[in-house]
Design the sequence.
């Protein structure tokens, strides 16, 4: 498969990307603009009070990033023009069931008429978010995207991005199969009905509001309620070499190690952690869009071809920070030592 040929697919296409300022979304946007400059339009939908603030967010959180360096160098003075001829900011919210909360009627009509492809990258990726918020975005939000997609008269493709691997509390080898509607991974909760979950979350919230609980209490209680109801997921995409965006997921642990603040961690040294660089995720999304079959779920992982063991991460981090120590507030290099790995 030649990437060049594949990118022809995107020529003259209009694509809606939700969660437009998110980590995966911006890597996808950069890749499309760099490899298919003849893409017609990229609508980036993100939460903002209006399209002007949405555009401002795209400028600072997407376009101004180091990630766009190659494009900036290639287009020089024409860069801004190149970007804004193709990128359009859309203020919206996937949790809004009314056409994703896109208030601008003209823009909405234009989108419903012209969109060829929708890529849903919007999600709350906070593992400890409030249950009502998680449900509104990650569950009902997907339904809202689906109903918006059904109104797009020229739509050819909807790609939904999600976490690849969820095992709940189960142990051992788990077969890769799709979940049936209502199926749960928990042994105690045998059936999951998202409408009931929504009602439970709304009920809990209204109880808290009735007793005039503080915002802080509401936040903590609704988060704990989510933990009670959910099985946590365990899939991670990390940053590409040379470009890092904040500290997320595994990065936090690795940076903590570099700062000498991680005396031990949990995990069997022989266990494999499935990590995949984000540029590979985006390449896989593109292949799935061009060659994939409708309704197929693609799992992007590294465990089989290029396994990364818990012990590898430990060794790599140790070697890296020994060679490139972080500097403490007194400007001294921080010396790292091997940590204790706890396992049963
Ligand atoms: N990164 C990983 O390790 C990883 C691993 C496996 C799967 N995934 C999946 O990949 C997808 C994208 O992840 P990511 O890493 O790009 O996450 P991310 O950086 O947190 O981006 C998600 C984006 O969604 C936006 N968003 C949240 N709620 C929204 C709403 N109601 N309406 C519109 N936009 C909304 C957020 O916008 P704000 O900026 O306004 O908050 C954020 O920019 C998710 O489904 C995630 O589960 C990620």
Sequence:
């Amino acid at each position: 498969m030649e990437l060049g040929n594949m990118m022809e697919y995107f020529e003259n296409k209009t694509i809606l990307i939700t969660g437009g300022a998110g980590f995966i979304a911006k890597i996808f946007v950069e890749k499309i603009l760099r490899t298919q400059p003849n893409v017609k339009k990229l609508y980036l939908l993100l939460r903002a009070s209006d399209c002007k603030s949405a555009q401002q967010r795209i400028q600072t959180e997407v376009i101004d990033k180091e990630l766009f360096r190659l494009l900036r160098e290639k287009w020089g003075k024409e860069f801004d023009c190149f970007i804004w001829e193709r990128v359009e900011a859309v203020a919206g919210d996937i949790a809004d069931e009314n056409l994703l909360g896109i208030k601008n009627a003209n823009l909405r009509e234009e989108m419903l008429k012209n969109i060829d492809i929708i890529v849903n990258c919007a999600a709350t990726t906070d593992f400890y978010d409030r249950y009502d918020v998680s449900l509104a975005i990650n569950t009902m939000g997907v339904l809202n995207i689906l109903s918006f997609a059904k109104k797009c008269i020229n739509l050819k493709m909807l790609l939904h991005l999600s976490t690849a691997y969820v095992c709940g509390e189960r142990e051992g080898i788990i077969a890769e199969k799709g979940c049936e509607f209502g199926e749960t991974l928990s042994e105690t909760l045998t059936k999951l009905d998202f409408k009931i979950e929504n009602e439970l979350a709304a009920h809990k919230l209204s109880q808290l509001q009735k007793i005039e609980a503080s915002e802080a209490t509401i936040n903590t209680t609704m988060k704990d309620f989510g933990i009670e109801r959910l099985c946590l997921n365990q899939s991670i995409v990390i940053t590409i070499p040379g470009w890092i965006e904040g500290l997320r997921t595994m990065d936090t642990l690795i940076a903590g190690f570099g700062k000498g603040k991680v005396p031990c961690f949990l995990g069997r040294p022989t266990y494999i952690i499935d990590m995949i660089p984000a540029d590979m995720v985006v390449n896989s999304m593109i292949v799935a869009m061009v060659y994939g079959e409708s309704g197929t779920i693609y799992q992007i992982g590294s465990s089989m071809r290029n396994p990364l063991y818990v012990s590898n991460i430990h060794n790599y981090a140790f070697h890296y920070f020994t060679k490139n120590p972080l500097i403490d507030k007194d400007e001294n290099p921080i010396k790292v030592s091997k940590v204790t790995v706890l396992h049963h």
